[in-house]
Amino acid sequence: MTKSVQSVRRKLMAAACYLAFGSFAFGSLAGQALAQDDFPTQPIRLVVPFPSGGSTDALGRLLAQEMSSELGQPVIVENKAGASGDIGAVHVARSAPDGYTLLLVSGAFVVNPSLGAPYDAVKDFAPVAYVATVPSVLAVHPSVKAKTLQELVALIKQSPPGTFNFATPGTGSVQHLTGELLKREAGVDLTHVPYSGAGPAITALLGNHVQMAVVSVPSLKGQIEAGNARAIATTLKARVPTLAQVPTFVEAGYPSIVVDQVQGLLAPAGTPPAIVEKLNRVVVSIIHRPDIHEKLIEQGYVPLGTTPQEFASELERLTRKWAAVIKDANIRKE
After folding, report:
1. In this structure, is residue 255 part of a structural domain?
2. Structural domain boundaries enclosing 159
3. Cα 319 to Cα 300: distance, rounded to the nearest angstrom
4. In this structure, what are the phi and psi dihedrals at residue 48, rounded to the nearest 5 degrees?
């Protein structure tokens, strides 16, 4: 066999191998694209990193029901509570990035990394949508004479140090950090009293064991309307529709006290963009449906429904914001 013939055969074999590999690669990519187009083909788990019955769980169950109808596959809520949400978050971060395991988070998600949580709120997840925000409210026991934030600040300053305390759902919660911001911005002396959830904190306020509390609007709205607690200020830039008579901290002269309690949907980092975009379209369409939008507002949520990119930017901003507050206040997780 001549060298020229051998050379031609080698080239033909190389070409055949290239075509075979190219066909395999194309088929593999096409298969992946088809799998993403068909998503979902099996049930989806929606992990709520808190016990059932809370505001995040309620939102998760509403989303799961509506997503099941839209996607044609069951979306099953799975409560993985513990460590202020860390257990559920870590579980999802370590799950396969295929869109079949999702995480619904609250405000603690962007706070906990600065308190030693074993996950990175930005790098370990693929943001799907900022679903809604839950405003918090600073409220006082009816026996406290102050009716406005200005009056409350003046009353605290006139009182001996250690007189006033405030209850929250726990150390490191966004409600705790709201109180720390008030201490810093108003220059007042307040003692933080952490409880194991909003329920015990509200019980302490109603029993006059603490003079003040910072909790979510949905958890205290009924007691405020019944006159058992007096709302002083809410934490968003605009007034909360269900407590429209209550001014914001911004209106009361504290523009830096704006607290967004995240209620957002995430997938594990590395989830294909096509799947993230499909989930985003479904969730946003649900949030903007008039009946769902109205239901969320009535329950005390502020519906949002952002793009994945907008949610990613918010996660970065809030993580930096709370890291600075935690460092400044020298907060340590108990």
Report:
1. no
2. 136-243
3. 24
4. -105, 115
Q: DSSP state, 244?
A: T
Q: For residues 37 and 279, what is the distance between their CA atoms, to the nearest angstrom?
A: 12
Q: Based on the fold, state whether residues 191 and 201 are members of the same structural domain.
A: yes
Taking each continuous run of H as one helix and of E as one strand, the counts in the chain are 11, 11
Residue 116: give its domain's CATH number: 3.40.190.150
pLDDT band, residue 186 (cuts 50/70/90): very high
Last-in-domain residue among 196, 216, 243: 243
| Residue 2 within any structural domain of the chain | no
Per residue in 222-242, pLDDT (tens digit) is: 899 999 999 999 999 999 888
Same-domain pairing of 237 and 272: no
Q: Is residue 91 part of a domain?
A: yes
**Strand, helix or coil at 135?**
coil
Which residue in this structure is represented by tokens 């008039």?
A: 290
Predicted TM-score (pTM) above 0.85: no
pLDDT single digits (tens) 254-265: 999 998 788 999
Are 278 and 225 part of one and the same domain? no
DSSP 275-321: HHHHHHHHHHHHHTSHHHHHHHHHTT-EE----HHHHHHHHHHHHHH
In a domain, residue 34? The reply is no
- What backbone torsions phi and psi does residue 47 show, to the nearest 5 degrees? -85, 125
The end-to-end CA distance of the chain, in Å, is 81
